[in-house]
């Protein structure tokens, strides 16, 4: 009797636990009284609450709790007190962005954030004031500070600490300070101003659905009454129409959909294309989310967008200053070559991950490819980059080998703007006839000589050549520099670890001090023992023109797609 009673209870009641990010939702459904409801339908109903909706629901609770602790009138009094004491004076957020646009100068908004719903913890223990000063000294136009506590782990304290730090630079020299949060109540605007913000973020998608325009307009007016021109965030054409209707002057186009946190970089360009010239005249547009390198910036600049907000890649960077300079086009990006690829799908994945060069090995090696396989891979890359064989234009004659190599470096960068990734054929102690035969059969872009070849061999080849130099414990940079010979087609040198048994793919590093010293004279590629774990340090210490990896992105002797993506990300962040 007890067993039957338990079975009946189980048939009547089903408890579902649905996990989503940091919350678990519990639902108890009586299926006897709701016989039309199936478990699948319950899952669908409960999953309809998006990430943004959960955040807004929590922020409403947070605001009500904050109001009980500190009333809005107290924040107003603090703002007035700050005015009297000339503390946390405003600077012109909108004016600076507009001035930069007139000068055709990129505005970088550097973001300070500890975590995010999509990435989890990023830099949970970072010192906000130190990070803010790094951004300020690197020349950002605006510092964006996340203050949402549950998913982004931010606080108002982070905001005020950054403001106190950058105030030491003077009001005219410091960046503007943006409070980035899910602002849904005027209370939060007064909080922001009292704690030193020059501007705030207002997200159209965070407004109440039945009164978006009214709520957005009200919050804009409150912000302006405090001297702050807000940044209004949109994600689609309908949202930007609403933002324009209420008179927004600064609009950020978020490439991330806040409902599912998926990123689509074409969002910004798609929305901008639908704006007419009159609408854009006094409007400042900012690309938000998904921006990690100079190429991303150039993509948005081609659409007329001259401001970008960058968060995760700056927070993860070991040298935010160099990253900001790189994004601004004031410092070149480190190039990446993934060597030893042996199938088309992995080659396309490597290209999608951001590789600049793909290496195909024709020398005797476990990674050697046949002519047939090489052509399959090259064909897939040509389809990916929408261009065939790319003839890198040689530079004009230079007075010295050092000058020639520098000029070749510029030629490779120009080529990459039109055809990325370029395809490198790797040879080692192969005779000239064999190399020429491969080049006639496979449309390579570059030749790499990784054996004991004389530099003069490059004079007999029609494609630009890279020459590997194998660095041993007895080498120094002067010795290496002196050994670099002349060659009509010598484009770059590649430093790899010396090993009497193999040519490349050793999995071991050499003394990077040699590379550091050599980099003061000529551009070079760094190879030997690199991996996702150490490439960021290698780039930071050696400042190479590019890095080359093979075994460091393999698992069980095969290319690992996750390691390839991680390596490129670590290098370019």
Helices and strands in order, then pairings?
Blueprint: H1 2-12, E1 13-20, E2 23-30, H2 39-46, H3 51-69, H4 72-84, H5 93-102, E3 107-112, E4 115-116, E5 120-121, H6 128-138, E6 142-146, H7 156-166, E7 176-180, H8 186-194, E8 199-203, H9 212-225, E9 231-234, H10 237-245, E10 250-254, E11 256-257, E12 262-263, H11 266-273, H12 277-280, E13 284-288, H13 294-301, E14 307-310, H14 312-316, H15 320-327, E15 335-339, H16 344-352, E16 357-361, H17 371-385, H18 401-416, E17 422-427, H19 432-441, E18 446-449, E19 465-471, H20 477-483, E20 490-497, H21 512-518, E21 524-526, H22 535-542, E22 546-549, E23 554-555, E24 558-559, H23 561-572
Parallel strand pairs: 3-6, 3-14, 6-7, 7-8, 8-9, 9-10, 10-13, 13-14, 15-16, 15-22, 16-17, 17-18, 18-19, 19-20, 20-21, 21-22
Antiparallel strand pairs: 1-2, 4-5, 11-12, 23-24
Helix pairs in contact: 4-8, 6-7, 6-15, 16-17, 20-21
């Amino acid at each position: 009797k007890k067993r039957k009673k338990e079975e009946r209870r189980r048939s009547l009641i089903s408890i579902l636990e649905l996990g989503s990010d940091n919350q678990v939702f519990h639902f108890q459904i009586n299926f006897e009284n709701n016989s039309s409801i199936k478990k699948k339908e319950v899952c669908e109903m409960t999953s309809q609450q998006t990430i943004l909706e959960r955040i807004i629901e929590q922020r409403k609770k947070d605001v009500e709790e904050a109001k009980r602790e500190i009333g809005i009138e107290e924040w107003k009094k603090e703002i007035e007190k700050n005015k009297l004491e000339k503390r946390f004076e405003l600077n012109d957020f909108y004016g600076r962005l507009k001035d930069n646009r007139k000068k055709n100068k990129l505005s970088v908004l550097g973001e300070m954030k500890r975590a995010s719903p999509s990435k989890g913890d990023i830099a949970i223990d970072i010192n906000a004031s130190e990070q803010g000063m790094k951004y300020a000294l690197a020349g950002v136009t605006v510092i964006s500070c996340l203050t949402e506590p549950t998913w982004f782990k931010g606080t108002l304290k982070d905001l005020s600490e950054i403001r106190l730090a950058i105030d030491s630079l003077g009001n005219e020299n410091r960046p503007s300070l943006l409070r980035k949060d899910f602002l849904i109540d005027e209370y939060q605007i007064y909080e922001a101003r009292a704690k030193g913000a020059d501007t705030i973020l207002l997200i159209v998608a965070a407004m109440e659905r039945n009164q978006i325009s009214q709520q957005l307009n009200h919050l804009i007016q409150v912000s302006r009454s405090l001297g702050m021109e807000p940044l209004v965030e949109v994600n689609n054409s309908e949202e930007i129409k609403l933002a324009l209707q209420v008179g927004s002057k600064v609009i950020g186009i978020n490439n991330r959909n806040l409902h599912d946190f998926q990123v689509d970089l074409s969002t910004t360009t798609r929305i901008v294309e639908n704006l007419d010239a009159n609408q854009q005249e006094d409007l400042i547009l900012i690309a938000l989310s998904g921006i990690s390198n100079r190429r991303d910036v150039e993509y948005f600049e081609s659409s007329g967008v001259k401001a970008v907000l960058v968060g995760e890649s700056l927070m993860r960077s070991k040298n935010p200053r160099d990253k900001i300079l790189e994004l601004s086009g004031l410092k070149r990006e480190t190039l990446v070559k993934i060597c030893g690829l042996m199938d088309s799908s992995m080659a396309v994945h490597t290209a999608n991950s951001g590789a600049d060069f793909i290496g195909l090995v024709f020398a005797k090696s476990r990674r050697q490819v046949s002519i047939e396989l090489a052509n399959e891979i090259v064909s897939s890359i040509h389809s990916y980059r929408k261009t065939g064989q790319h003839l890198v234009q040689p530079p004009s004659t230079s007075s010295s080998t050092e000058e020639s190599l520098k000029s070749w470096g510029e030629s490779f960068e120009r080529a990459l703007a039109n055809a990325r990734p370029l395809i490198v054929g790797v040879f080692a102690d192969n005779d000239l006839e064999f190399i020429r035969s491969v080049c006639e059969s496979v449309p390579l872009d570059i030749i790499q000589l990784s054996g004991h070849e004389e530099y003069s061999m490059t004079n007999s080849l029609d494609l630009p050549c890279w020459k590997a130099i194998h660095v041993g414990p007895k080498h120094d940079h002067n010795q290496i520099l002196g050994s670099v010979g002349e060659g009509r087609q010598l484009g770059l040198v590649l430093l790899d670890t010396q090993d009497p048994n193999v040519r490349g793919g050793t999995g071991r590093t050499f003394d990077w001090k040699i590379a550091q010293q050599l980099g003061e004279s000529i551009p070079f590629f760094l190879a030997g023992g690199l991996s996702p774990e150490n490439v960021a340090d290698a780039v930071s210490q050696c400042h190479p023109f590019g890095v080359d990896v093979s075994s460091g992105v393999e698992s069980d002797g095969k290319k690992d797609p996750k390691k390839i993506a991680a390596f490129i990300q670590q290098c370019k962040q």
